[in-house]
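User: Teach me something about this protein's shape.
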Amino acid sequence: MQDEIRLGAGGIAALAADVRTRAALGKSALMNRLFDFLLEQSLAGRSPKEVEVAREVFGKDARFDISQDASVRVYIHRLRRKLDEVYRDAPGERLIIPRGEYRLAIAAPAGAEVADAPSPVEGEEAPAPGEGRAPIAIRSRRRSALALLAALLAGLVLGAVLWSLTRPVPAPDRAAAAPFWRPLSAAGRATYLVTGDYYIFGEAREGGQVTRLVREFAINSRADLDQYLMMHPDEYSRYVDLDLHYLPVSAGSALRDIVPVANAATAPARPRVVAMSRMTPEMLKSANIVYVGFLSALGLLRDPLFDASGFEVGASYDELVDRATGKHYVSDWEEIADNRTPHRDYAYLASFPGPSGNRVLIVAGTRDPAVMQAAEIAGDRAQLDRIAAAAGKADAFEALYEVRMMGTLNLDSRLVLARPLKVAGLWQAGVPAQNFPDDPASTPDPGAGPPPAR
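Assistant: First, the predicted structure itself:
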């Protein structure tokens, strides 16, 4: 076990300032307020009680009951996870929240085992007796059948990608010279092609045998499942983290169009491909990012994009609402399923500056046909020039296309609008522009039935 280093207020303050500089806590006002409160108390040499945190940070009154309300513990757990992410690949001293306490402390340099950072397999150790805390560890069970299934799915996706990349793509150099791609040519920055993936977990019946894989609308990571089990300890043996993710089928076709253009735009360097679940805040801060996938899988890019966008997400990610006009753009894929009647989907492209002068490009859609169409548009110089002209040649802009399809076959598309993005103060900490459909007020119950449409 690691020994805690007590270097005093100066060391804690310096590490806290570094966490702030990295913008590692995101834009959640509550998360930032919790961090500030713990920092203030730690610098004063205090470790407040849970009821104090509830009162000062969460605005709870005298009726607050720690046995019935786990909000403080949930957010402390989430803050621990945030700090784990900050230091995942960083050696040296780190801030931790000691188990069973509500304060910040400094952990030993890399090389010693970190007691407060659970391993991906074993999870966190159980709370000390008498703390009244729900168990939050998640056991990772890997069954041979599920491992085979995961390998098969990964092989199919990889095969689709490799097959797609062998197909000819017209004039990648010409498309790479368009305003959309041009910012990637800046020397000295890495570029990541980030694919939107989804987290799935297992459901185990009696005896511990995993019998089915679950994709739940509002459980999008191991940390989310961890939080759910913390709030529902009676489900501890039912839901199992398998460390599995999947990509939509549009990934292969979309990368077929994107990779040659991205290669031309970043030459002589080459972009690296990473799943959104593996993207880190440090990547977002320092590298160019090209996101390819569903609007519902934007991950770290979601809040900054919709802070700048003229759209907000409606009842689901199949619906975009124009803030200026109130007009709703809704994919009707769910209403028409006979593969004989044309229906519509929406493709979306955006370009905006990152937090350190890097560039973020979005090539996305509401469903598979729209993602594939967005990738085609991103490889078409004429379409990109049209978007730039419609957006007034703005440095940061967004474009929406209506895509008509029959089944999974794209029939045609039309540009609905293109306009500048509002990027002033984009990367300053603040409250997100909206609540999203996969951020419910209460933790969902995965056993309650099928999730809402993505």
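Now, about its shape. Residues 348 and 400 are 5 Å apart (CA to CA). The radius of gyration is 23 Å. If you'd like, I can walk through any region in more detail.
User: That's plenty for now, thanks!
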